[in-house]
């Protein structure tokens, strides 16, 4: 074919052109897998850019990001002109004069390299091609990657081809924008927008000339010219960029002389480049969205989603403050209780031998550690006990210490932790999520991931079963010893529950009174009467998903459940008998705000409205019944506008777990407190029961919420029933005089019956709920409700205290106990 061309130079030129075209086709088609992948037309039109997803509170405040490359793109008109000018002056002075490849610059670059001044000839478009399509990674290299010089030449050639494709499809402004959105700036900051926020804590259109020069200067080597790690080199490089801008007349000499003298001044933003979830909430959202992402083909870490959670930033802040405040007190109390004693004890109070050593064996690195030291005991002990500098968590802030590995394990083993969640059951929106003390030190989430014995917070499901069986809140049981036989497999077991103080009053109590005082013996009798299988069934119906062992003790909280499950289940009572599947995310949009998905909570009617309302009335017994276990809440400013609170304390065996479940007219909140290892716990009820560990967090939280009108959460009574209440439920309990504070069960040293006006007549009549509510709203905040469980005989003989005096007395007692 070429022999027909008589002119030899033309013939050879034609052969070169032909071979060049063949080579281009071979590269583009990846002939015989030699050259690797090359971007096609679709890739050029729709470049795949790894974008960070942003997660927000429900009120629009940014929580954080998910990313592989921390990047938030901007448009060209959002980029300050000084950045564009600095980039062109430094990286590609002939940017507006070439079509992607600048052969004049390549030629001068080759000459400079030969003379010893190494200078690249790549244009901005070529650099964009390399960054955007990763032309030099393994996927793009093919089999020629094993031939050193050839692979470099081919990669460079592919960059040229890609650069031409980009110039053919995009304007110069588009190329500049894409380049600045893709380049890395160190500290896991990708793109000019993220870099401006990271280094100067400002938007990219607000940067000053010297800041623009600094950012552009970093592009030559982000590590070498990092202003945080190498401020002097970064300053020198900034001034070189300013000199280039002067050379190509982007700034005048006066501006140059003024700017070059300015010192390096950083203002690091909050976006510091961490990508480990950074908080319990961000991690919880990621897990909540995992299934949705898989089903819909989204990558949370690359697709630039905007995720709007249901979490209220104010409520979250107040919850975290309440946790911080009380856990600090609680940890000090725990340390004082044990002093120099070892707190890891069995149920008999004996120290567990080799506790720290056994925990060491569970650590993932310990097996390899022993293997490296050839299992030499002396060497192992030496390194484990060798002090070294480290930072540890304290409630007063991070602390620098010299701890050995054994010291560190011992220190953290004694640390109490917590989990807290708040739900609006009407909408199904989760409003608060506090997974623990501090995510940087304790990754384990105590809202949904952790499951612990629920203690007495599980008792309401037994009383629910009683109502479902036809009983009413006024039906009575006697507080007396109980002995229940049951089958466990092929064996016959006997269960004899005790009250918290190991005493029985032998007094008849209504269901509401017994639940309000958390009486174990009566709860056991109810469970026996309705059947423990029924209790388990109703707990599952209300929202408990964990496997529950169906045994008589199930009602006393012998099974492990999560805070999430308990809050969800309690929400059924407030939500008129509808179980809700809570949502943590409300909606998801793309980067431009276009709606991708909107989430709605699913509601399922599992209880009648009458039963649900009666259960709310029962829960109020914790505050209103004599000796109710929620009455410690009187310490906080929660009782304006006829406010009503229902709740249940809970404490597992040996004071391992402390719980409080609180219900208001708007929200349901669950709080758990305890050590991560169940062998570590308080010694007695005065320090370790739920009313002293978990309840104060709820009290402090709600006090803060009520005091801020911007939350939209106000005090007030529970809603009136929407249906006719056919059960008898008003049955005032006799006022009791005791010489101790109320506890999580019937901890009463002495009882004295006080007469009430016509109790029998009130117990048996059918009552109109409308009338009952009006009466309660008028009288619910009066002092006798509080005094029923906490007034001493001496006080009863004195002149009656005013409401203000009684609340002051309560506060003083609580503060003394906390100290």
From TrEMBL:
Organism superkingdom: Bacteria
InterPro entries (UniProt xref): Beta-lactam/transpept-like, Glyco_trans_51, Glycosyltr_51/Transpeptidase, Lysozyme-like_dom_sf, PBP_transglycosylase, PCN-bd_Tpept
GO annotation terms (biological process): cell wall organization; peptidoglycan biosynthetic process; proteolysis; regulation of cell shape
Residues covered by region (Disordered): 759-819
Keywords annotated in UniProt: Carboxypeptidase, Cell membrane, Cell shape, Cell wall biogenesis/degradation, Glycosyltransferase, Hydrolase, Membrane, Multifunctional enzyme, Peptidoglycan synthesis, Protease, Transferase, Transmembrane, Transmembrane helix
GO cellular component: outer membrane-bounded periplasmic space; plasma membrane
Transmembrane intervals: 12-35
Catalytic reaction list: [GlcNAc-(1->4)-Mur2Ac(oyl-L-Ala-gamma-D-Glu-L-Lys-D-Ala-D-Ala)](n)-di-trans,octa-cis-undecaprenyl diphosphate + beta-D-GlcNAc-(1->4)-Mur2Ac(oyl-L-Ala-gamma-D-Glu-L-Lys-D-Ala-D-Ala)-di-trans,octa-cis-undecaprenyl diphosphate = [GlcNAc-(1->4)-Mur2Ac(oyl-L-Ala-gamma-D-Glu-L-Lys-D-Ala-D-Ala)](n+1)-di-trans,octa-cis-undecaprenyl diphosphate + di-trans,octa-cis-undecaprenyl diphosphate + H(+); Preferential cleavage: (Ac)2-L-Lys-D-Ala-|-D-Ala. Also transpeptidation of peptidyl-alanyl moieties that are N-acyl substituents of D-alanine
Keyword flag Transmembrane helix: yes
Residue stretches making up the Penicillin-binding protein transpeptidase domain: 421-702
Keyword Phosphoprotein: no
GO MF term set: penicillin binding; peptidoglycan glycosyltransferase activity; serine-type D-Ala-D-Ala carboxypeptidase activity
Ranges of biased composition (kind: Basic and acidic residues): 795-819
Glycosyl transferase family domain span: 60-245
Pfam families assigned: Transgly, Transpeptidase
Pathway(s) the chain acts in: Cell wall biogenesis; peptidoglycan biosynthesis
Protein localization: Cell membrane
PANTHER family: BINDING PROTEIN TRANSPEPTIDASE, PUTATIVE-RELATED (PTHR32282), PENICILLIN-BINDING PROTEIN 1B (PTHR32282:SF11)
Family indicated by similarity: In the N-terminal section; belongs to the glycosyltransferase 51 family.
Name under which the protein is recorded: Penicillin-binding protein
């Amino acid at each position: 074919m070429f022999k027909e061309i008589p002119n030899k130079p033309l013939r050879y030129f034609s052969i070169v052109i032909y071979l060049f075209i063949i080579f281009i086709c071979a590269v583009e088609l990846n002939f015989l897998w030699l050259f690797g992948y090359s971007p096609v037309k679709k890739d050029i039109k729709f470049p795949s850019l790894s974008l960070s997803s942003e997660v927000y509170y429900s009120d629009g405040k940014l929580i954080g990001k998910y990313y592989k490359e921390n990047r938030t793109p901007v448009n060209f008109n959002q980029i300050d002109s000084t950045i564009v000018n600095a980039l062109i002056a430094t990286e590609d002075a002939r940017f507006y004069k070439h079509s992607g490849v600048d052969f004049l610059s390549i030629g001068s670059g080759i000459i400079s390299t030969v003379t010893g001044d190494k200078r690249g000839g790549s244009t901005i478009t070529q650099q964009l091609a390399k960054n955007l399509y990763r032309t030099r990674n393994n996927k793009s290299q093919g089999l020629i990657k094993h031939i050193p010089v050839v692979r470099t030449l081919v990669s460079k050639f592919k960059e040229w081809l890609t650069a031409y494709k980009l110039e053919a499809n995009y304007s110069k402004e588009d190329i500049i924008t894409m380049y600045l959105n893709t380049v890395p700036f160190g500290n896991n900051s990708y793109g000019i927008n993220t870099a401006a926020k990271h280094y100067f804590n400002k938007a990219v259109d607000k940067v000053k000339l010297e800041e623009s020069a600094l950012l552009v200067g970093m592009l030559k080597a982000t590590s070498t010219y990092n202003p945080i790690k190498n401020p002097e080199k970064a300053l020198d490089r900034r001034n070189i960029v300013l000199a280039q801008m002067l050379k190509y007349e982007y700034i005048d000499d006066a501006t140059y002389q003024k700017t070059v003298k300015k010192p390096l001044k950083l203002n690091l933003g909050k976006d510091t480049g961490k990508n480990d979830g950074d908080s319990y909430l961000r991690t919880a959202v990621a897990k909540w969205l995992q299934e949705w992402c898989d089903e819909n083909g989204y990558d949370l870490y690359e697709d630039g989603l905007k995720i709007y959670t249901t979490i209220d930033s104010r409520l979250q802040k107040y919850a975290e403050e309440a946790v911080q405040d009380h856990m600090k007190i609680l940890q000090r109390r725990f340390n004082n209780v044990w002093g120099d004693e070892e707190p890891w004890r069995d149920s008999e109070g004996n120290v567990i031998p080799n506790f720290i050593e056994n925990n060491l064996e569970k650590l993932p690195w310990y097996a390899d550690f022993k293997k490296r030291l050839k299992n030499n005991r002396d060497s192992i002990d030496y390194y484990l006990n060798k002090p070294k500098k480290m930072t540890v968590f304290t409630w007063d802030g991070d602390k620098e210490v010299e701890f050995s590995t054994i010291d560190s394990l011992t220190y953290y083993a004694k640390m109490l932790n917590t989990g807290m969640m708040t739900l609006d059951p009407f909408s199904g929106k989760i409003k608060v999520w506090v997974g623990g003390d501090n995510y940087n030190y304790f990754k384990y989430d105590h809202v949904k991931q952790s499951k612990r014995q629920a203690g007495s917070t599980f008792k309401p499901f037994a009383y629910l079963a009683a109502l479902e069986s036809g009983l009413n809140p006024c039906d009575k049981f006697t507080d007396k010893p109980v002995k229940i036989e049951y089958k466990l497999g092929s064996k016959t077991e006997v269960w004899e529950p005790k009250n918290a103080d190991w005493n029985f009053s032998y007094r008849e109590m209504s269901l509401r009174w017994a639940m309000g005082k958390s009486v174990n013996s009566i709860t056991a009798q109810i469970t026996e009467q309705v059947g423990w299988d029924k209790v388990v069934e109703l707990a599952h119906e209300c929202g408990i998903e964990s496997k529950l062992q169906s045994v008589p003790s199930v009602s006393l909280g012998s099974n492990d459940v999560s805070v999430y499950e308990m809050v969800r289940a309690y929400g059924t009572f407030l939500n008129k008998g509808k179980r809700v599947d809570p949502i943590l995310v409300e909606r998801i949009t793309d980067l431009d705000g276009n709606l991708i998905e909107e989430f709605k909570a699913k509601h399922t009617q599992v209880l009648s409205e009458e039963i649900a309302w009666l259960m709310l009335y029962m829960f109020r017994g914790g505050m209103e019944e004599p000796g109710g276990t929620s009455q410690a809440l009187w310490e906080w400013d929660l009782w304006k506008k006829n406010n009503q609170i229902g709740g249940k304390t809970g404490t597992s065996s040996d004071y391992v777990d402390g719980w409080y479940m609180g219900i208001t007219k708007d929200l349901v909140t669950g709080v758990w407190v305890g050590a991560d290892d169940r062998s570590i716990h308080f010694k007695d009820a005065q320090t370790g029961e739920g009313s002293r560990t978990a309840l104060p967090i709820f009290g402090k939280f709600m006090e803060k919420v009520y005091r801020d009108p911007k939350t939209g959460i106000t005090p007030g009574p529970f809603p009136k029933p929407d249906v006719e209440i056919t059960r008898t439920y008003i049955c005032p309990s006799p006022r009791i005089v005791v010489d101790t504070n109320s506890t999580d069960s019937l901890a009463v040293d002495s009882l004295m019956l006080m007469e009430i006006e016509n109790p029998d007549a009130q117990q048996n009549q059918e009552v109109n709920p409308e009338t009952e509510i009006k009466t309660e709203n008028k009288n619910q905040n009066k002092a006798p409700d509080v005094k029923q469980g906490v007034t001493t005989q001496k006080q009863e003989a004195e002149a009656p205290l005013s409401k203000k005096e009684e609340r002051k007395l309560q506060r003083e007692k609580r503060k003394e106990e906390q100290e």
